[in-house]
Amino acid sequence: MKNNTANYIGLSFVAVCILGLHENAEADLLTFQGQYQSELEERSAVSNQAVYDQLKASGCDDVERAATSSCSGATFVVWNNVRELVHTANELTNSGPTLFSLDSNLEGLGFALRWTAGEEFASEESLVDSFVSGQLSGLASRITALRSGARGFNIAGVDVDGNGELARISKYSSGLNAGDQTSDLWSRLGGFINGSYTYGDQEGSEREDAFDFDGAELNAGLDYRLDDHWVVGGLLGYISEEVDFDAEKSIVDGGVTMDGLSLSTFVLYQSDSWFYSASIGYQYSDFTTTRSIRYPSFNPNTTSTNTEARSSNDAHTLTTNMSAGYSFFVTDTITIEPSVSVNYQDVSIDEYREKDINNDGFDFVVSKQNIDSLETVASLKTQYTLTTQYGVFMPFVDLQYYSQHKSDQRFIEAAYVGAMETLTSDAYFLLPTNSVEVDYKIYSFGVAAVIRGAQQTTFGSAASGGIQVYLNFREIKDIGDYSQKILSGGLRYEF
To answer: Angle at which helices 106-117 and 39-58 pack, to 10 degrees?
Structure first.
């Protein structure tokens, strides 16, 4: 409540400043500051009023029905849109020009303002975050498998002999000793593939729309064991994800689709109990957005609005990750692993322009966005080892606590395309995004299994052919009204 009050005070101050620029003006959109239903409507009122003022000052007129030499082409189309909104406010206060009013009440005016706001752009950041999170999760799963697969597939203390048979269980055998010379006996090269399905939703807020989303992700890569302690590898990823805006919960309609590619490299070091890893990655995301703008007019002089603004744009993300942890072998079958991680990502969303499919002037040019994220993660994983005649099964539970260290409020800057040559930055929309949650959690549980150990095909050759599989369910909690769940699975094979 305090944050909303502060926002409205700030908006009111802006409104007073703008009013000071046109002392002779009658009532306008700023008259109702503090009475609109959301912060987004308040901000849209400020921006649309500024556009109206600047276009009027450049030669656009309140009574003209067609373009003129001083208000021509696409500029007139934009002028016509903002004039309708201002005339509606004038009619509600019985002051100022009202010829092109929508004949709507205050609630209807607020709805129209929200339709024009362009808050849908904020969903791209959520899609990028989901992509990066999925890549880091897939990489973490691979590193866990490698740590556990030091000799063939030796997971949580389970050894596999040269014939592919389960040999023994030892609470000290998950790591390698320097004198084991395992690299001469076991394959150095392994390949893996894993996929995931993610889904979730976000409730509407003062700043962003309600939406549902789902998508699929596929990762594949290779890892190479340099010696008994060091492993390096690479990971390729592809994602396809879609956001559908929920018209039943917000004044919005349309959606965003994202296709992305990712490349990551990593290095792993492990001793008998300690383990360390580091990775660096790059993600490319391609977005296609459809944004509907629809609101009615009850005035025969003004037509109702029903159009779409469409756009395509790109995002580029650089990520780094460093992790360290320790394995406690409580018993021969129970392992507890605390760990800490640092995740950094630098996201750049390129500037882009929408296209109004009906040339109605509601399309925006959206300025370039730069987003930094720095998180620390404290994790506690518990794993149980079950040995059967069908293989070794390792159910686990992993609890992760995230802390975000870059939580400054962010705004997306946008302006009407048709009036770009006339408008100054004072008439740009500043679209706020939801506040960044400082702390949140991820709960995951699943099972990994060795279903076949590595074997020697000929005497003296390196053992290969080992197969490991896993299933995992993750849920992100405590990010406001945002909910995300991920179901993933994978396979690793030793060449």
So the answer is: 80
